Amino acid sequence: MDIDFSFHEPVSVLTLLGRLHSASFALSIEGKVSHLVDLDGMFEWLKAPAADLKSVVSELNRAEWVDRTVGITLLFPGSVRGGDLLFHPGRVKVSLVIEVNRRNLPESQFCDFGWYLNQIIPILEPMGLVGVEAQDSP
User: Against a cut of 0.85, is the pTM above it?
Assistant: First the structure.
């Protein structure tokens, strides 16, 4: 289950994560920041102490990674639901892979995309958001 966000021009990892953090999205879970810099196409996730969040975000934002996928796990404000936010090469596409305590539609096996989109689109739209695509399978 994922949501792909397309932007008019490349987005800054630092700016986008800063906006999410300011909107009370949690960028650490149980005292750890889960993140990745895809060096070899194998998506190996790393964990750092929550106290290192600023340095992790700075690392993900480095210009040398612009042609690599980087990501961070986040939780939505006031909830235990979230997923992996992936910044794709070129930074005009960002994906949210919903994996943490997924919220489904009532009495359904399908994801409640509206719940996620209502919270994140207001943050992304002012950054030049031009498209959203959601995909789910039971």
Answer: yes
